[in-house]
Design brief:
This protein is mainly alpha-helical. It has 2 domains: 17-45 and 64-108, no CATH class; 117-581, Cytochrome C Oxidase, Chain A (Up-down Bundle), CATH 1.20.210.10. It is built from 22 helices and no strands. Helix 7 packs across helix 14 (340-361), helix 14 packs parallel to helix 17 (411-425) and helix 14 (340-361) runs antiparallel to helix 18. The radius of gyration is 26 Å and the shape is globular.
Length: 621
């Protein structure tokens, strides 16, 4: 007789995916960087006298940073899926559900999570951190410029802070709309269950986190002493901190390319049944136009930094005229990215405000087709204006006139977007909320930014204004006055859908007025000193510029105070705000038709669209 003994079945071990999180990523990245650093110190050659070869330190630094990057991405779990695919095995259903963050609570925000809503919140948090760091550096800059003597910061430290502030704020403004709202809101707005490539969506976010460490690392080994544009051959001669800039840009460029391909595919292939292009919300057009500009532009920026790394670490001479290279090559590569990048920032912000305009005026969007043509016109022309940054460089002077014409022509499609916003506001039933007032602020700020930009597009005027604080004031009016204004309005508008709570109305208004008043005070003061001749990138100046700089510093501190009020509003509203109804604004786009918390796959049954999203004021049939 055989006796059957029931042995307890041991629980299966955790999958490798379940063991990986931000802490394993940080640990593996740090270990990888340290190991490679020690190996590079040991094996990279030295001169006979024991003196380091010129490029040796750059090789060690870049190799260590690459090791950090590979270690971090392995530790966060980004390579598990591709490795399984190479081995001929895909992830199991349970592993995919774990990746999506199903039933994981707050832990999912610290992992490689594929749910687009989690990625949207992650982007919102990292954008906030970037603006906090970049804004803090702005306060250091303005404090140093509060009086003519300067001297509070050492000139080298000042230059490094200026460069780091610049690149941080550029990256922050690039992702401030397409990151949080392009990930969280856009798939629901088009009636999709998720992004087309969820793993790439998570990858785009964690690449930005991985990129941050080399930039911070670089601050302790000389910083960015060249300004945020990092012109070569100056950058080839800069301290080791420039290697951190190179790694930061290369990794961030990969992130933008991945995100751009994902967003474009999602919109083109996954819109709800019946959502023709004429029924697609204008915010979607703005988001797609933004990433469509980034897709060809950022690989060029990536290439410019690869060549810069070769010049620094391998002794090549791509940018060194003594070896047959050219500094103009870098300028062209940089600005082929650098001017479309302005509209990568601006277009989604304006599109977001055009999305809100019908909601808070209770009128259909004034000429949807004109809005689409304006976005398309800006996108096309923005790729043909880069050399207006090079008028004074001496490169191809015969091309100055054509580039001046294309730069001035871009005001036409920009004016079309103004027309759409003004036409929507005209005789509307205005609901005076902070997002609606942001539309008025954008019209005011971008009018100033656009008109002052016309002078810079004119070759003779640019000869006088180039390199002055006037230029700094101009692009802040464009990127901050228009772009950031749209992003802050988007935060208040979509806050109820992202958090389930209403943003504190009083705090939103206080923040709005402090930021807008402080902004205009600060940069009108900067226009004053720029027109009077104060150059950019100087840590001390002549006493004649005292008054304008004092005004700018007072305005800058007012902006910072307003942004801190906004941060307090985000935290307090998220924790204790009024519970939001499903559709607090009575909007007509699809994201307001899903409950909070939003289901993992957004819709139990995919919606069918039968009308445009701006049918306000139309009689019911």
């Amino acid at each position: 007789m055989t006796t059957l003994i029931n042995k307890p079945v041991s629980a299966p071990g955790k999958s490798i995916i379940e063991r990986l999180n931000i802490f394993t990523a940080l640990a593996l990245g740090a270990i990888s960087a340290f190991v490679v650093w020690r190996l590079a110190l040991q094996f990279l050659p030295q001169d006979a006298d024991g003196v380091r070869i010129l490029t040796r330190e750059d090789k060690i630094t870049l190799l260590s940073m690459i090791a950090w990057f590979v270690g971090f991405m392995t530790g966060i779990g980004a390579l598990v899926g591709p490795f399984r695919w190479l081995m001929g095995k895909d992830l199991s259903h349970d592993e995919n559900m774990f990746l999506a963050g199903k039933d994981m609570g707050a832990k999912r925000y610290f992992r490689y999570t594929t749910d687009h809503k989690v990625v949207g919140i992650q982007y919102l948090v990292i954008t906030t951190l970037i603006f906090f760091l970049g804004g803090s550096m702005a306060m250091l800059i303005r404090t140093n410029l509060g009086h003519a003597g300067g001297g509070w910061l050492h000139p080298q430290a000042y230059n490094s802070i200026v460069g780091t502030h610049g690149i941080l704020m550029i990256v922050g403004t690039i992702i401030m709309i397409t990151g949080p709202f392009g990930n969280f809101i856009m798939p629901i707005m088009i009636g999709a269950r998720d992004m087309a490539f969820p793993r790439l969506n998570a990858l785009s976010f964690w690449l930005i986190v991985a990129a941050a460490v080399p930039l911070i690392w670089g601050q302790f080994i000389g910083g960015i002493s060249t300004g945020w544009v990092a012109y070569n051959p100056l950058a080839s001669q800069a301290p080791l901190g420039m290697d951190g800039y190179i790694m930061f840009i290369c990794i961030f460029a990969i992130s933008t390319m991945v995100a751009g391909a994902n967003i474009t595919t999602t919109v083109v292939r996954m819109r709800a049944k019946g959502m023709t292009w004429n029924r697609t919300p204008i915010f979607i057009y703005g988001t797609v136009a933004s990433v469509a500009l980034a897709l060809p532009a950022f690989p060029v920026f990536f290439l410019s930094q690869i060549l810069s790394a070769f010049d620094r670490a391998l002794g090549t001479t791509f940018y060194n005229t003594a070896g047959g290279g050219s500094g103009w090559l870098y300028e062209n590569l940089f600005w082929i990215m650098g001017h479309p990048e302005v509209y990568v920032i601006l277009i989604p912000s304006v599109a977001a405000l055009m999305e809100m305009a019908p909601v808070f005026t209770r009128r259909p969007l004034f000429s949807f087709n004109v809005a689409v043509m304006g976005i398309a016109g800006i996108s096309g022309l923005s790729a043909l204006v880069w050399a207006h940054h090079m008028y004074m460089a001496g490169w191809a002077p015969l091309l100055n006139a054509p580039f001046m014409i294309t730069t001035e022509l871009i005001s036409i499609p920009t004016g079309m977007l103004f027309l759409v916003l003004v036409g929507t506001l005209w005789r509307g039933r205005l609901w005076m909320t902070m997002p609606l007032m942001s539309i008025f602020a954008l019209l005011w700020n971008f009018m100033i930014g656009g008109v002052t930009g016309i002078y810079l597009s004119d070759v003779p005027a640019d000869a006088f204004l180039h390199g002055s604080m006037y230029v700094t004031a101009h692009f802040h009016y464009t990127l901050m006055g228009a772009g950031l204004t749209g992003a802050l309005a988007s935060l208040v508008y979509w806050f109820p859908k992202m958090t389930g709570r209403m943003f504190d109305k009083k705090l939103s208004w206080i923040s709005f007025w402090m930021v807008q008043i402080g902004f205009n005070v600060a940069f009108i003061g900067m226009f004053m000193v720029g027109l009077a001749g104060q150059p950019r990138r100087v840590e001390a100046y002549a006493p004649t510029f005292n008054t304008g700089n004092l005004v700018t510093t007072i305005g800058a501190y007012t902006i910072m105070a307003g942004m801190l009020v906004l941060l307090h509003g985000v935290i307090s509203s998220w924790r204790n705000g009024v519970i939001a109804p499903m559709n607090p604004w009575q909007a007509k786009t699809l994201e307001w038709t899903v409950p909070f918390p939003i289901p993992l796959e957004n819709f139990d049954v995919l919606p069918t669209v039968s009308s445009d999203p701006y049918g306000y004021g139309k009689a019911k049939s």
